[in-house]
Amino acid sequence: MPLQSLIDDALAATPPGRRVWVALSGGLDSTLLLTLAVDACRRHSRPLHALHVHHGLQAAADDFETRCRELCARLGVPLVVERVSVDLAAGRGLEGAAREARYAAFARRVAPGESLWLAQHRDDQAETFLLAALRGSGVRGLAGMPSARAWRKRRLRRPLLGVSRAEIEAEATRLGLAWVDDPSNADRAQDRNFLRHDILPRLAGHWPGAGEALARSAALAAEADGLLADLAGLDLERLGGDPSRLPVGGMIALSPARQRLLVRHCCERLGLPLPPSRRLATLQGQLAARADAGVRVAWPGAEARVWRGHLHLLAPPAELPAGWRVEWDGRSPLVTPLGECRVWLASPEGPVALRVSGRRGGERLRLAGRGRRDLKRLLQELGVPPWVRGRLLVVRRGDEAVAVLDPCKGGWLVVAEGWSGA
Questions:
Q1: Number of domains the chain contains
Q2: DSSP E strands: which ranges in 337-384?
């Protein structure tokens, strides 16, 4: 299929009227992608922008930006340049840290509902497959890069993913395009560059269709991954449908492999980072712990807790700063370190001065028909999880506790007798 037809098909699959972005590095692949996208968008009257991420990792970075500006000026395409800081101390390696910074820039510039086109091709997919295999990845990793996927309410698409680099270079040459070569791509100390320059050419020398075969294996792995997602969805439905709260009894009835699959599926549904294999194995080993064991297994950006017969998956709970307190009139929006709460609270005696702070311990509230009740026991009766209790806010009139608020949900848990709130 002609490359321009691939771009036309990708454009037809994007929502009408929504802007299309092309991630532009200035290299061969993205230069051709932008050129073909300009042709398609002009023929179909679609808005097109280019986005260049300036990583600042090498002396040539400014030259890349200059070339991108020249190309976009020649094509008549608006260009946005995002300068990022790459955190090399976070333990993700150079490639991983640069990718994280790049995607953060994408999220800042590409609005929800819009599409971002990336220029990866079939050779990139073959490299990704080999890297995943060498790292011992499962089906998800071996699936490589999808040709299209939803991402943070945006749509990522790779129109050239089925095209070899040789085909891309031939088309760019035919069109008389100029591009820049990133000197860092020659650094064989980077895993991907080592595969690209030393391993894949040798494989292709012995198996002429090696790149295509590896990419096809990635596509088959992606198909299998989709089927596994369907299976995990069925298990989730059978266990109540709430990815943040899974019954432990139902989990234990599944095979260990399906337990792992379900936990990963639920984390994806919740937008949480997937647990590393060792953390997931630790969690599985504690599912049957005694009820009062207080099981908590954490990994960067997420944690799992077992409480009252359910497995809870959540982001690490936010904490109140020590000693935080604020005066409040009961009517205006309540601004807290955990977010703004649009709630109100009225005294039976009319407007009064209130003070809001975290729990101190020993609070008691007077409830209609129940008298004064200890807050700690009351939260247990209400089924408030332990990790939520530490972030609750207590509203006081003088020294008397009159209401308890969950600021993360923006709603009252308890309101004292005679008081009203919403």
A1: 3
A2: 339-341, 345-346, 354-358, 364-367, 371-374
Same domain, 88 and 141: yes
Helix, strand, coil in percent for the chain, rounding step 5? 40, 20, 35
Distance CA 17, CA 47 (A): 7
Q: Are residues 128 and 38 in the same domain?
A: yes
| Residue 304 near residue 263 (C-beta atoms within 8 A) | yes
What's the whole-model pTM score? 0.76
Dihedral angle computed from the Cα positions of residues 163, 165, 167 and 168, in that order, rounded to the nearest 10 degrees: 90
Determine how many CB atoms are found less than 10 A away from the CB of residue 390.
12
pLDDT band at 1 (very low <50, low <70, confident <90, very high): low
Predicted local confidence at residue 90, as pLDDT: 62
Query: What residues does 414 pair with on adjacent strands?
Result: 404
Judge whether 319 lies within some domain: no
Please give the residue range of the domain that contains residue 270: 239-314
Give dist(CA 244, CA 223) in Å, integer.
26
Residues 162 and 61 in one domain: yes
Beta pairing partners, 313:
304
At a CB cut-off of 8 Å and minimum separation 6, what does 194 contact? 188
As a whole number of Å, the CA-based R_g of the chain is 27
Tens digit of pLDDT for each residue in 351-397? 788 898 888 888 888 887 788 888 888 888 888 888 888 888 998 98
pLDDT tens string 175-212:
999 998 877 777 787 888 899 889 999 999 999 999 99
Residue 228 within any structural domain of the chain: no
